[in-house]
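Lab channel / #folding
Pinned by the channel admin:
"Please post every new chain as: sequence first, then the structure tokens as a reply. Keep commentary short and put observations after the output so the thread stays searchable."

First post following the new format, from NK:
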Amino acid sequence: MFKSKTLLVLLGTWILLCASCNNGSKVKIAEINNVEFEFEGPLYEGANTAQYLYSVDLKKLLEQKIVKEGAIKKAVLNSAIITADSCEDCYNFESIKSLVLSIVSDGEIPMKEIALLNPTDSKTNSQTLKLAEEADIADYFNTDKIYWVLDADISEDIDDNLVLFGDFKFELRYD
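Reply from TO:
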């Protein structure tokens, strides 16, 4: 009798803890692909910056018909891959020493570095960036616009434009 009551109390406590941890949040893995970063030439040796304006559409991103304002409670970048065109006369990562990905919004939210790679691998046209630990970016997804900022540290002057593409995967927790 005592063992069954203890087991019942432990089971009830476990269920209560699980329910309180979830807080009714839902999780969505969202992908934003083919983000184009165009670095307008001439580019000079050192840091060069390109940006992409992303209009946040939570209904589309979360695949929901109705989304409350401020619905995103937590957002974490799970992967960031930057690629270059693989054409004969295109610039690839031979001229790029490092990459830093940051985000910023029009509001009062400060710019946040969310991924980087130093050094890049010059032998491939696809670079997987290292993610910033504990970078919760929910506030950015609760705005209308996000600016993706990609900094490329270039090892030599380039007279032409340089185009890189980003594929990003996020874990979004929302109500």
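NK: The chain has three helices and nine strands.
TO: also worth noting, The first strand starts at residue 26 and ends at 39.
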